[in-house]
Specification:
106 residues, single chain, mainly alpha, elongated
């Protein structure tokens, strides 16, 4: 096989999966308290880890694409977008919680 005939595997699968997990955990954070389960308090901060992993993994995958080791794919961009969205939502939720606790203590 020549170099032109080798198919490169698509990049970004790990980023997409971890971004989807982060968004799912955020959804659970909003759905579970209404069901009377306190796991929503745990699910929102737990979404921070896969969100960070998704962003970092997509940056590493993008580097591999630039070096020609993997093929660019929609999964790479979707993983970065989901991870960034989840990261911003978690940080906004934590910021809102800190702000509301400060105002409740006054």
């Amino acid at each position: 096989m020549t170099h032109d005939q080798i198919r490169l595997r698509p990049a970004g699968t790990g980023a997409l999966v971890s971004g989807a997990v982060a968004i799912t955990l955020l959804g659970l954070a909003f759905l579970l308290p209404w069901a009377g389960v306190m796991m929503g308090v745990v699910a929102a901060p737990a979404a921070l880890v896969p969100a960070l992993w998704s962003v970092v993994e997509s940056l590493f995958a993008r580097r591999r694409v630039r070096r020609g080791e993997e093929a660019a794919s929609v999964r790479l961009r979707a993983g970065f977008a989901l991870g960034s969205l989840a990261l911003a939502a978690v940080l906004a939720l934590i910021g809102w919680a800190v702000w509301s606790l400060e105002h409740a203590a006054r």
